[in-house]
Amino acid sequence: KNMPTMYWGKAIVNYLLARRDLDVGRDPSAAINEGLAQIRACYTAQQGFPECQVTEGQLLGAQAEWRKQQRAPFVATLERARKLATQATQQSATNEELQLSRAELCLQQAMAQWDARQRPESVLREGMEAVTQALTLSRDWPRALAVQGALFWQQAQLQEGAARDESLQRAQKILSSAFAGNPLLKRRFGRFW
User: Fold this and answer.
1) How far is residue 70 from each of residues 64, 110, 163, measured CA to CA in Å?
2) Are the beta carbons of 31 and 11 closer than 8 angstroms?
3) Would you state the pLDDT for residue 47?
4) Radius of gyration from C-alpha coordinates of the chain
5) CA 115, 118, 124: angle at the middle one, nearest 5?
6) Is the pTM higher than 0.85?
7) Can you tell me the distance from the alpha carbon of 130 to that of 193, in angstroms, rounded to the nearest whole number?
């Protein structure tokens, strides 16, 4: 009964190791591959376990980020990651961690679409919906506030005039609250501030 949770826990550790590697510019492939192996074991124990689905999405998101840094194809991996997170939140809509992971992957995909000169309105809407749900479940959560602020910043890139200024001000205010709650978030989200 606890087998999926055990594999999920090991996959999360590997995701965190991959994030650390990305943050310092190291190849996260070993941690990602080990994490994905734990996800496969999780699915063997219980197919469709939502926590494993979203963690697989996070691992694929880290893989896409590394591929982007290496100038390798990454968009399909990122789309798959977001879809996994969306499926997980459909199964467990009241889990704030799953909702926040979905919002983070939407932000990552919106940024990729913007870089490719595409307009990411639908992905931004999905991300805003997910982060709003996460904040409804866990009010004033600094990491969720940071993602929300980054989503508003990305949304501002699509706007003009007063609407753009309003979104940028809102992003800055939300990010200030997030950084006050957890200054370490500046490393990852400071570029949006």
Assistant:
1) 10, 19, 35
2) no
3) 85
4) 16
5) 90
6) yes
7) 21
